[in-house]
């Protein structure tokens, strides 16, 4: 029972493998299919982009596929970087540059105005069935400096609500119970069986 996670992002792949460990599914990703098609993320929403990625990959390999489109939405920046999170500081993906850009834009902004949330849209697609989507969120705030080595992407500058440390300072097991991705996957999990 193979599920392809339609991503090349190692951080995402690791989290899906950890969260689906023991579920009985064999979790693969585009890192296992290096010659896969490039999908243009032309959607305006996370859900639209997740559908584009899941349907393109499930069609190409004729396998059940889950795609994850995610990002960070900062209230002070009117929801930016949002669906542009991966390329916020430029066309080339560069996490360090993206984080610096956010910290610069929020320089001097008081704590009360630093609220933000991670979004995760998941789409499951198969050659035979209709695509199904879910969404998850994780509320929090943007810190003043980077801290922590765990996780990936914006984790070092995001403090989840109710915690005193950044997402990157939490053990991975804890991130995987409170994250936007965990929230979304919980909503999807029961539905996965219907695709097999
Ligand atoms: P794929 O499209 O191949 O899945 P990607 O990294 O381009 O990989 P997205 O287009 O969904 O994925 O962009 C997600 C962005 O949001 C990217 O900058 C991530 O670093 C960030 N992001 C998503 N989930 C995150 C998490 O759990 N912690 C920190 N940052 C995250």
Automatic annotation (TrEMBL):
InterPro entries: dITP/XTP_pyrophosphatase, ITPase-like_fam, RdgB/HAM1
Keyword Hydrolase part of the UniProt annotation: yes
EC number: 3.6.1.66
Residues binding Mg(2+): 40, 69
Co-factor binding comment: Binds 1 Mg(2+) ion per subunit.
Cofactor(s) the record lists: Mg(2+)
PANTHER family, A to Z: INOSINE TRIPHOSPHATE PYROPHOSPHATASE, INOSINE TRIPHOSPHATE PYROPHOSPHATASE/HAM1 PROTEIN
Protein name: dITP/XTP pyrophosphatase
Protein source organism: Metabacillus herbersteinensis
């Amino acid at each position: 029972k193979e599920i392809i996670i339609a991503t090349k992002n190692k951080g995402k792949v690791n989290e899906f493998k950890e969260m689906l460990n023991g579920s009985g599914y064999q979790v693969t990703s585009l890192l296992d299919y290096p010659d896969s098609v490039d999908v243009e993320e032309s959607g305006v929403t996370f859900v639209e982009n997740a559908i584009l990625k899941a349907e393109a990959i499930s069609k190409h390999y004729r396998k059940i596929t889950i795609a994850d489109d995610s990002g960070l939405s900062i209230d002070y920046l009117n929801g930016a970087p949002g669906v542009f999170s991966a390329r916020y500081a430029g066309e080339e993906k560069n996490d360090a540059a993206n984080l610096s850009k956010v910290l610069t834009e929020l320089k001097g902004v008081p704590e009360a105005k630093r609220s933000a949330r991670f979004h995760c849209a998941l789409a499951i697609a198969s050659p035979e069935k209709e695509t199904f989507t879910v969404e998850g969120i994780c509320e929090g705030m943007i810190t003043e400096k980077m801290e922590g080595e765990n996780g990936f992407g914006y984790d070092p500058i995001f403090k989840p609500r109710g915690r005193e440390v950044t997402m990157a300072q939490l053990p991975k097991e804890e991130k995987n119970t409170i994250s936007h991705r965990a929230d979304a996957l919980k909503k999807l999990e029961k539905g996965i069986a219907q695709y097999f």
